[in-house]
């Protein structure tokens, strides 16, 4: 391979790896800071969950439309804009005077994050040949887990000694580095869909559908929630019909109908994130409110799962280049189920060693699932669909995370009500945790079957589109 290509590949791997580190670092660091944020901005358990939910909701709504625009106008360009918006939004978070301002700034971060998510994986997959994708995606996903690993630790130290706002200052510096490297070291790419139009009508219908479903889910068990969810489902059906008729559809629905590997890999991702996203959110609150640990101490415990992920992910990615992702990812999902079931039994006297064992088990499960699943998804389509495939997979992740938060918010609303987590209601918080982990365990069991149902990838018949 030519030196110029090697340099280009390295620069793309560098910036996508940095951005893959950035968002999970921020999310896991903020999880540790939640009690401090709650205290300073006078937030209830329910309003506190919107610090995470606002980011996810904004990113999920815009991810696929932005991925399509990136295919039309150039992925590098959108990647740069995304890094800039994310960095500016992070600076807004630093100066947040109220809970409403912080939640709005996090939503803006979500839009910038969507521009990064929808282009990064596509740029990376396009830069490397098929036989190396599993290994490179394994490295890229390792960065996610390194971010998750150091996030609680650095976030805990920053929160304890400097304050939670310094977490966002750290992300500003990383965002500036990503923006600079992409702007100066990576050449403009050629559009693969430059002669095609953008489906604005479909984008609006899609945004209304997703917003109504996801926001409605977060409003359960109120009466408005049912109306919102029904509206969202109606608009989702309308979106599918409209996409089948559109000359330049936002999403090629046939990718799901005609490509079994693509369809079930995305479904498996949706289930996996639905079942696992709130684990650190809940354990951070548990360790600091029930076990009375400091933010730094809680962070040092929460690193257990991502440390295992960071070690195992490159190995899992390489395995998926040689063996069926269907098998490797399904084993990972099964191990994750065991970890979730064990968390159901948390109580006030549970030992830290027990929690660490659960987190290590979950880390192994996550690692065996994630990179093989991404490899299967991206390898199941051709170059033209890389942007949409990357964005679709990202949407599954974010939608799953939103459902995960939605389940948590629903249980909190029913059991805890609109109250902060205090010593007076510790038993209600533990009851909420038990119910949430029970629900997530059942959901994750369904993910095993979705992962197995995708079929074989290495038989040469998966690139149907």
What do these coordinates show?
This protein is mainly α and 465 residues long. The chain has two domains: 3-183 and 248-453, Growth Hormone, Chain: A (Up-down Bundle); 199-247. Helices cover 81% and strands 0% of the residues. The protein contains 17 helices and no strands. The protein has helices at 3-41, 45-73, 75-94, 99-127, 133-161, 165-185, 200-219, 223-245, 254-258, 260-276, 279-289, 295-302, 304-322, 325-343, 352-379, 386-416, 426-453. The chain is globular. The model is unreliable at 460-465 (pLDDT under 50).
Instruction: Briefly note the structural class of the backbone.
Output: mainly alpha
Shape: globular
Beta-strand proportion: under 5%
CATH architecture annotation name of the largest domain: Up-down Bundle
List the defining traits of the structure above.
mainly alpha; globular; 17 helices; 2 domains; 465 residues; disordered C terminus; Growth Hormone, Chain: A
Blueprint (SSEs and pairs):
Blueprint: H1 3-41, H2 45-73, H3 75-94, H4 99-127, H5 133-161, H6 165-185, H7 200-219, H8 223-245, H9 254-258, H10 260-276, H11 279-289, H12 295-302, H13 304-322, H14 325-343, H15 352-379, H16 386-416, H17 426-453
Give a brief rundown of this model.
Helix content is 81%, strand content 0%. The protein has helices at residues 3-41, 45-73, 75-94, 99-127, 133-161, 165-185, 200-219, 223-245, 254-258, 260-276, 279-289, 295-302, 304-322, 325-343, 352-379, 386-416, 426-453.
């Amino acid at each position: 391979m030519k030196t110029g290509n090697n340099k280009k590949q390295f620069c793309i791997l560098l910036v996508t790896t940095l951005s893959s580190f950035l968002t999970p670092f921020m999310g896991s660091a903020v999880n540790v800071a939640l009690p401090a944020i709650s205290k300073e901005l006078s937030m209830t358990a329910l309003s506190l969950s919107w610090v995470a939910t606002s980011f996810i909701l904004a990113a999920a709504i815009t991810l696929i439309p932005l991925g399509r625009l990136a295919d039309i106008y150039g992925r590098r360009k959108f990647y740069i804009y995304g890094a800039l918006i994310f960095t500016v939004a992070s600076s807004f978070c630093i100066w947040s005077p109220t809970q409403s301002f912080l939640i709005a700034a996090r939503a803006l971060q979500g839009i910038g994050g969507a521009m990064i998510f929808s282009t990064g994986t596509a740029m990376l997959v396009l830069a490397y040949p098929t036989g190396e994708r599993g290994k490179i995606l394994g490295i890229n996903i390792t960065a996610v887990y390194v971010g998750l690993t150091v996030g609680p630790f650095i976030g805990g130290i920053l929160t304890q000694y400097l304050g939670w706002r310094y977490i966002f200052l750290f992300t500003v510096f990383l965002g500036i580095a990503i923006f600079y490297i992409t702007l100066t070291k990576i050449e403009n790419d050629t559009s693969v869909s430059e002669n095609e139009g953008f489906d604005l009508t479909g984008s609006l219908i899609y945004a209304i559908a997703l917003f109504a479903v996801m926001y409605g889910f977060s409003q359960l068990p109120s009466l408005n929630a049912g109306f919102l969810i029904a509206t969202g489902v109606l608009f989702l059906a309308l979106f599918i019909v409209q996409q089948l008729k559109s000359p330049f559809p936002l999403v090629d629905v046939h990718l799901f109908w005609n490509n079994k590997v693509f369809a079930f890999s995305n479904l498996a991702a949706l289930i996996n994130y639905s079942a696992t996203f709130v684990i650190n959110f809940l354990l951070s609150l548990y360790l600091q409110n029930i076990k009375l640990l400091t933010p730094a101490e809680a962070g040092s415990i929460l690193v257990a799962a991502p440390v295992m992920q960071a070690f195992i992910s490159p190995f899992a990615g390489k395995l998926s280049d040689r063996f069926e992702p269907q098998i490797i990812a399904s084993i990972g999902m099964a191990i994750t189920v065991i970890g979730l079931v064990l968390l159901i039994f948390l109580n006030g006297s549970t030992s830290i060693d027990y929690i660490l064992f659960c987190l290590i088990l979950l880390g192994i499960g996550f690692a065996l699932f994630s990179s093989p699943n991404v490899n299967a998804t991206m390898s199941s389509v051709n170059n033209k669909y890389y942007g949409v495939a990357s964005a679709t997979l990202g949407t599954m992740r974010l939608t799953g995370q939103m459902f995960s938060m939605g389940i948590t918010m629903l249980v909190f609303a029913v059991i805890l009500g609109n109250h902060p987590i205090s010593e007076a209601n510790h038993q209600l918080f533990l009851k909420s945790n038990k119910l949430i982990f029970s629900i997530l365990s059942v959901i994750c069991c369904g993910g095993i079957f979705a992962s197995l149902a995708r079929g074989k990838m290495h038989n040469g018949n998966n690139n149907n589109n």
